[in-house]
Write a structure and sequence with these properties.
The chain has about 400 residues and is α/β, with parallel strands linked by helices. It contains 15 helices and 11 strands. Bound molecules: adenosine-5'-triphosphate and magnesium ion.
Length: about 400
């Protein structure tokens, strides 16, 4: 966009423009996202000058109607909130919890223990955001920051197929940035501005937002540094979501008690950037094969819980998981009959029936693969209804 160029700001000449772009600040939006203190730090500019430039940038965006003014009436905020985009989760249950879907201009934090479905949710939303507006999407693309090397294009393909979308097109609209360390993770976000704009990014995923920081800053002594750096990342993400009007999802693996990493669990992690920017916290919990999602902190949602499930289509309604189970059971039950005719002379088909059933169900039993990554303590403190001990329901 022509009027977002740095030199469209009065008083910003070629020298300042170069200084800023050398430091990774490419347009007026970036100035707001980074803020005066950081701008001064990274360009070596006087703090006063940086403040003036950032204020000018803010005014420029307010004049252009791209961001809200400092002082606004409640009705203006209400109007503004009506224009916030929502991305459906593709399920009735989670859409009910989110009151329609994930919001733009907001950061949604999803936390829970290993295998609870955070990554599956992130994959599902990366497909859903691409749906048309009539179908509950935003016709936008995705910036997926993968810090744990768990982004799987195959999952995207099956989720897209399950939603009757062209998998190739869906893959093309997901820009994956693999972050190798926490500094790299921050850098990716700092440089994301032009990518977001050029590609009409409507969803930014940080999966996991916290993992690298946690791995690099071990021990009590480093806790405050870690928190400070993590806060920087989360604030940046939150400001980008607000400035570029896109949704942001940050995942956070927590152990049995979810309160340790962001302080008080009832408070938003990123803090509120401005009055109308909200941060949502969702807690995912395993309950046998099903999953429970709880809205933990929201300025306007009631604190409630819904049950969802995981499947080929990503996050799914629990009824759909049951339908699938029934289908599989039917198929499995029929199998021995067919077998019986073909193999009748050699094998006693009837005796084998229960075994066939069990094999057919095996792929649905999960979490075993992930178990070794987790402290023994965590495993033993997880709900009694752990995946493996769950009896297979008929
Ligand atoms: N194709 C699929 N069909 C059904 N379930 C699946 C499929 N792929 C993965 N799952 C389930 O998703 C669960 C893993 O979820 P996910 O990877 O989202 O967990 P996570 O919360 O991101 O965990 P971590 O904290 O370790 O990253 C497993 O229980 C697995 O069975
Ligand atoms: Mg994950």
């Amino acid at each position: 966009m022509e009027d977002l160029r740095l030199d469209s700001l009065e008083g910003v000449g070629p020298v300042t423009t170069r200084k800023l772009s050398d430091a990774g600040v490419h347009n007026v939006m970036d100035l707001i996202v980074r803020g005066p203190v950081e701008i001064a730090e990274i360009t070596g500019m006087e703090k006063d000058t940086a403040e003036k430039i950032v204020n000018k940038a803010r005014q420029h965006l307010v004049d252009g109607g791209l961001i809200a003014k400092h002082f606004v009436s409640a009705s203006e905020i209400y109007k503004h909130r009506q224009s916030i985009g929502k991305i459906t989760t593709g399920t009735n249950c989670l859409d009910t919890l989110f009151d329609g879907g994930i919001e733009t201009q907001a950061l949604t934090e999803v936390y829970g223990e290993f295998g609870c479905g955070k990554t599956q949710f992130a994959h599902t939303m990366s497909v859903m955001v691409q749906k048309t507006k009539e179908e509950g999407g935003l016709e936008g693309s995705v910036l997926y920051i993968d810090t744990e090397n768990t982004f799987r294009p195959e999952r995207i393909v099956s989720i897209a197929k399950a939603h009757d979308m062209d998998p190739e097109k869906v893959l093309d609209n997901i820009i994956v940035a693999r972050a190798y360390n926490s500094a790299h993770q921050v850098l990716i976000l700092e440089e994301a501005g032009p990518i977001i704009e050029e590609n009409n990014v409507k969803l930014i995923v940080a999966d996991s937002a916290v993992g690298l920081f946690r791995a690099e800053y071990l021990g009590r002594g480093t806790l405050s540094v870690r928190q400070q750096k993590l806060n920087h990342f989360v604030h940046l993400l939150s400001r980008i979501a607000e400035t570029y009007n896109c949704a942001a999802i940050a995942t956070n693996q927590v152990m049995a008690s979810p309160d340790v990493f962001f302080g008080d669990p009832t408070r938003p992690i990123g803090g509120n950037v401005v009055a109308h920017t909200s941060t949502y916290r969702i807690y995912f919990k395993k309950s046998g094969k099903k999953r429970i999602a709880r809205m933990v902190d929201s300025p306007h949602h009631p604190e409630e819980e819904v049950i969802f499930a995981l499947g080929e289509a990503g996050v799914i309604d629990p009824e759909d998981a049951e339908k699938k189970t029934k289908k599989t059971t039917k198929k499995a039950a029929k199998a021995p009959e067919v077998d019986a005719t073909a193999k009748a002379p050699e094998v006693d088909a009837t005796a084998k029936a229960p075994e066939v059933d069990a094999t057919a169900k095996a792929p649905e039993v999960d979490a075993t693969a992930k178990a070794p990554e987790v402290d023994a303590f965590v495993e033993s403190t997880i709900d009694n209804e752990s995946e493996d001990s769950e009896p297979i329901e008929e």
